[in-house]
Design brief:
The protein is built from 31 helices and 23 strands. By secondary structure, it is an alpha/beta fold. It holds the Pfam family Glyco_hydro_15.
């Protein structure tokens, strides 16, 4: 492995995040390219960046289908590089110009060579022979007879039109033949490697000494330290060390049969919070000459905290960020902590690829066992003792015993010279409490009733009253919800530093926040947290977790302006967005959106299939879906208030909403939920492209126009950017059920055009008008409710089954066909209706 200065250190969690990003993009290459030949050296030799054989085959199949030609692979569709039509004096393309290169892209023999190498590595002689036979006629030769790999083959200007009319019909010419002394060195080098491999003069192991690629049959028998392939069956056992923060807590837990260690008992091994490890990693990659700083100040993930570190002569184990002391109210819900522990264990099981066992440190604090928190914590600790937690196998033992089977990382980049000052790291210290003193366990606090969460004052009555009157009422009031409301009036009027009987306004709200948390008054807690501008830990990493899955996130209240996040942002920027966009109607929205982001970040990492068909994760709309769900469950009774639910209940409700809609639910409810989630059917965006091809004047809905040109010229059918453009068109629709009906309408239009190739729209297609026509027909067939106010109520239409006689699809189809027949029908030579 070389000496310390030759070792490349990688952030394990960042590497895993990169792998997830790649897997979520594939079989696409990027947002703008549906596929690209550059994926070949990425997924096969030399990078071997993928461990999913099915996804590899799917991606390779797409590259071959879309890009393979007689003379090599195209780099990507509509690639203008070195074509006869490319303007070589310009370094950019004009709008709609890339359409000119459709079908005449240059073909590169280099990628045939990569396919030969891939065939050797994967033990596929048929693939090797196929691409050798394709490559041999393409090779040029020097005057000495040495083979030369041309960089590309191009279509000459005189043959461009003929090639466009009949793809693959024209002869292409090589870019270079080597006789002028100019060589494409990359192609030559890879050709030599392929020849050596094919002739068995070198073996794959010679080219891949650290085992980046391991054949499936050998994966059980090798160290996977450097390989991106995991074991065939993931039967990982996670090693767990239970650490009590004080000796008296250890004694207390021992009475229930739970064996733990204290920080003193694991010495000389130190226990660090993940933020101390972050401080150590500040020094990773620092290079003054190159102007490189260290690792950014972002939390370490649970993969990174599952290793043992040797740092400046110390042996260190770390606990995950979920055990950090937090000022945000979610930490007051012990069920959230338990859920986070289970999620972390499942994540480690799924993504751990190191040779040793992961070591997961569980830190138990005295605060965890107070009141009603004790029983769930005790049940979880009992599950650890049994060896199964949340479906993950665990083995609990002392840290000193577990260290032998763990992965040890030497942080050699922390070499400190005599002139440098060593960084100061703080290890976990045992609470200095009498060993035999009793652990204070407060009496169990039941969940607060709905009545307790309601204020006994009306905020509108107090907005115009004097500050003195508000202060008087605040002093006389015992209701925490009322105190929070009155404090909010003072905060907005007088500012956070205004003095009250109990200190400043900000200090008074902080006390309300703490007391409401201990009483489980979640609505009051959220209101106070928002007034104080609280920000949950790990908000930025959670958004990044969503982005790496190929999704976008929008923050903002339902029905209000939203901010789209498509790139990772710093916590400060995210906080500004949340507190500017999310508390316009209800202050509590700003903090519950943070909860949702944290939950979604975990869920999408462990269960990405729940977000299938959702390109944009619109947090405000998902909250609206959850409120719909509560109304549906309540029936004729008043719906439960989302803001009064505990964080763990909110998370469970979110999981329920994300599940595919169950049978037995009415169609109105289904459309409301799916519309809120922005869920679309498989192949939806491709079908919109096909509609646009037959709609010269474009589509419009809710005032948002999607033109045919330059859209079709600037983009290709399968690229992500087009899908985002369609989502942008649908963005202005403010009713979830109406949005879902528009999605159904577009699917209907696509099917009709697919079955009737002779038809196309003559004018701009106004989807709102088509839907209105369908609804008018629906009203004729159903008893129309009396009263003009009900004439435009589409509720009955939304609640109608889509398929079958008098289903919504039949009315939508009729409206679409009527619009199509208003235009001209294109004549066809093989039209069966034509007599002569």
């Amino acid at each position: 492995q070389g000496c310390s200065w030759s070792v490349i250190f990688a952030d394990f969690d960042a590497h895993n995040r990169n792998r997830q990003t790649l897997c979520s993009l594939l079989p696409r290459e990027s947002r703008s390219h549906n596929t690209d030949a550059a994926l070949l050296p990425c997924l096969s030799y030399p990078a071997f960046a993928l461990d999913d054989e099915a996804l590899f085959s799917q991606t390779l199949d797409k590259i071959i289908r879309k890009l393979k030609g007689k003379y090599g692979f195209k780099r990507f569709l509509r690639d203008g590089y070195r074509t006869a039509l490319e303007d070589k004096t310009r370094r950019y393309y004009k709008p709609a110009e890339i359409k000119l290169f459709d079908g005449i892209e240059c073909e590169f023999p280099l990628f045939f060579i990569f396919m030969i190498i891939d065939g050797v590595f994967r033990g596929n002689p048929a693939q090797v022979k196929e691409y050798q036979d394709l490559l041999d006629p393409l090779l040029q030769h020097t005057s000495e007879g040495c083979p030369v790999v041309p960089k590309y083959y191009y279509v000459p200007a005189d043959f461009v039109e003929l090639e466009k009319k009949n793809p693959g019909s024209q002869k292409r010419f090589p870019s270079n033949n080597g006789r002028d002394g100019r060589f494409f060195l990359w192609g030559q080098a890879v050709y030599i490697i392929a020849k050596l491999l094919a002739d068995k003069l070198v073996s794959p192991k010679d080219l891949d000494p650290i085992g980046r690629y391991v054949p499936p049959q050998d994966q059980r028998n090798v160290s996977m330290r450097f390989s991106n392939q995991g074991p065939l069956e993931n039967d990982l056992v996670v090693h767990v060390a239970l650490i009590a923060e004080s000796q008296r807590l250890q004694v207390f837990l021992n009475t229930y049969g739970i064996q733990t260690q204290t920080p003193q008992q694991v010495e000389p091994i130190q226990i660090w919070a993940q933020k101390e490890l972050v401080k150590a990693y500040f020094h990773l990659g620092v290079n003054d000459k190159l102007g490189l700083s260290g690792r950014p100040d972002r939390p370490m993930g649970c993969l990174g905290t599952s290793k043992i570190y040797r740092i400046l002569g110390k042996t260190v184990v770390c606990y995950s960020i979920i055990f950090d002391l937090s000022d945000f109210y979610m930490s007051q819900d012990v069920m959230m902590l338990i859920d986070d522990i289970k999620n972390a264990l499942q994540f480690i099981k799924q993504y751990w690829k190191m040779h040793g066992r992961p070591l997961f440190v569980v830190l138990i604090r005295e605060d965890n066992i107070r009141g009603s928190r004790f029983s769930p914590i005790l049940d979880m600790l009992a599950a650890f003792r049994k060896g199964i937690v949340g479906g993950v196998k665990v083995h609990v033992d002392r840290v000193q015993t577990l260290i032998s089977g763990a992965v040890v990382e030497q942080l050699d980049f922390l070499r400190i010279t005599e002139t440098e000052e060593a960084p100061v790291f703080k290890s976990l210290e045992e609470l200095d409490l009498p060993k035999h003193s009793k652990v204070k366990r407060q009496s169990s606090t039941p969940n607060a009733s709905e009545l307790e969460q309601q204020p006994d004052v009306n905020i509108n009555d107090w907005k115009n009253k004097s500050t003195y009157e508000i202060l008087q009422k605040l002093n006389d009031c015992n209701c925490l919800a009322s105190q929070a409301l009155l404090s909010s009036v003072l905060l907005k009027r007088e500012g956070p530093n205004f003095i009250t009987k109990e200190g400043t306004v900000a200090e008074h709200i902080e006390r309300i926040y703490r007391r409401a948390g201990s009483k489980k008054l979640w609505s009051v807690v959220r209101f106070a947290a928002s007034l104080l501008g609280k920000l949950v830990d790990s908000l930025a990493p959670s958004i990044t977790n969503v982005l790496v899955q190929g999704k976008q996130v929008t923050l903002g209240a339902f029905g209000q302006e939203e901010v789209v996040i498509s790139n990772p942002l710093s916590p400060g920027v995210i906080k500004n967005i949340i507190y500017e966009k999310c508390h316009l109607q209800d202050e509590r929205e700003a903090v519950i959106q943070q909860e949702l982001v944290i939950h979604i970040g975990w869920i999408i990492s462990n269960s990405p299939e729940l977000f299938r068909g959702m390109l944009k994760i619109r947090i405000g709309w998902i909250i609206h879906a959850m409120k719909y769900e509560l109304k549906i469950r309540a029936g004729d009774m008043p719906a439960k208030d989302l803001y009064q639910m505990s964080p763990s209940e909110v998370k469970q409700l979110l999981l329920d909403v994300l599940q595919p809609q169950q049978q037995g639910r009415c169609w109105l409810n289904r459309r409301q939920i799916d519309g809120c989630l922005n869920r679309t059917p498989a192949g939806f965006y491709d079908r919109v492209w096909q509609i646009l091809e037959r709609t010269p004047n474009g589509l419009i809905v809710a005032g948002k126009f999607l033109p045919q040109q330059p859209t079709l010229s600037d983009m290709t059918m399968y690229e992500m950017n087009f899908s985002l453009l369609v989502e942008d068109m649908l963005q202005n629709i403010d009713q979830p059920e109406y949005r879902q009906m528009v999605v159904e309408l577009l699917m209907v239009i696509s099917v009709i055009l697919e079955r009737n190739p002779e038809l196309e729209f003559q004018d701009k297609v106004d989807l709102d008008k088509v839907l209105q026509e369908a609804f008018n027909d629906f009203k004729k067939d159903h008893s129309s409710p009396k009263g003009s106010e009900k004439q435009h109520d589409l509720t009955a239409f939304y609640n109608t089954h889509p398929i079958g006689k008098k289903g919504t699809c039949s009315y939508l189809s009729k409206a679409v066909v009527t619009l199509l027949l208003e235009g001209e029908v294109k004549a066809s030579n093989d039209d069966p209706c034509t007599i002569s």
